[in-house]
Specification:
Elements: H1 5-21, H2 25-58, H3 70-224, H4 245-259, H5 264-267
Helix pairs in contact: 2-3
Length: 275
């Protein structure tokens, strides 16, 4: 888990301060040791000088080998003091070595943790790279799919434009056909009207001729009926011949007078298939 930013900044600043403070630590340690050695030497010299003074005062030479020789005693004391200081220094070195070993173990543990974190980061980085590669492939596939869809849309647009053009042509053709049909229907109605007028005129002419013939026949019958062997004229409402033509003409005339035109069967009796 990552530390907060302010803690990381504080740690970095403390580490920088420690590095600055410990930059001259070896030199300071050497000067400390030198000062300690100098102090020991000064004490040893002072002891030797006191021993020499004592020997001079007692009349003994410095080279006497007696056990009570103060020079030798001072020298032995100085050596013991030096040995003691060296032992203390050795103890300090052992202590420092132990601290360094402890620090080394701690640093090894930290290094192991950092290596584990680095391994985890490397694994995450590898997974991230794999995911990036997969996403890039998906992006490429999506781009290809979009390009294919764009081509399909363009084809559909072209087909729609063609269909609209064909539809406009069909509508225009339908309008032309509708106009032609209207013209043909009007011509057919005009032809039927002219034929009906012609039939009505023929019927009217036939009626006039029939009335004229009936009047002439009645006048002739009246003149012949003035004799002793006169014959009554036949009823005009009955047919005068066996063929029934007079009855048919009378029925046609009555239908014409009543409706103003012939029935559809009579009107279209002599029409051609094309009107």
């Amino acid at each position: 888990m990552a530390e907060p930013s302010w803690q990381e900044l504080l740690r970095l600043r403390l580490a920088e301060r420690n590095n600055k403070d410990s930059a001259f630590a070896p030199i300071i340690e050497q000067y400390r040791r030198l000062a300690q050695q100098t102090k020991l030497l000064k004490e040893r010299n002072a002891t030797l000088l006191r021993a020499v003074g004592t020997v001079k005062g007692s009349g003994n030479t410095p080279g006497s080998t007696g056990e009570d020789n103060p020079v030798r005693a001072a020298y032995v004391a100085s050596l013991e003091t030096q040995i003691s200081s060296l032992r203390d220094e050795l103890a300090n070195l052992y202590k420092t070595q132990g601290q360094n070993a402890q620090r080394l173990l701690s640093m090894n543990e930290t290094l192991r943790e950092k290596e584990e974190i680095s391994r985890i980061d490397s694994e995450n980085l590898r997974k991230a790279k794999d995911e990036i590669a997969v996403l890039r492939r998906k992006v490429d596939q999506h781009a290809e799919l979009m390009a294919e869809k764009d081509r399909t849309v363009q084809i559909l647009h072209d087909e729609i434009s063609t269909s609209l053009l064909e539809l406009s042509q069909v509508e225009e053709r339908n309008q032309i056909l509708a106009k032609d049909n209207a013209k043909l229907l009007q011509r057919w109605l005009d032809a039927k009207q002219a034929e009906a007028n012609r039939v009505n005129e023929e019927n009217e002419y036939y009626e006039n001729m029939r009335n004229t013939n009936v009047l002439a026949w009645r006048e002739g019958s009246a003149q012949e009926g003035s004799g002793p062997n006169s014959v009554h004229p036949p009823d005009s409402s009955r047919p005068t011949s066996g063929s029934g033509k007079d009855l048919d003409h009378q029925t046609t005339h009555s239908a014409t007078k009543k409706n103003g035109s012939l029935p559809p069967i009579v009107q279209g009796a002599d029409l051609t298939p094309n009107g």
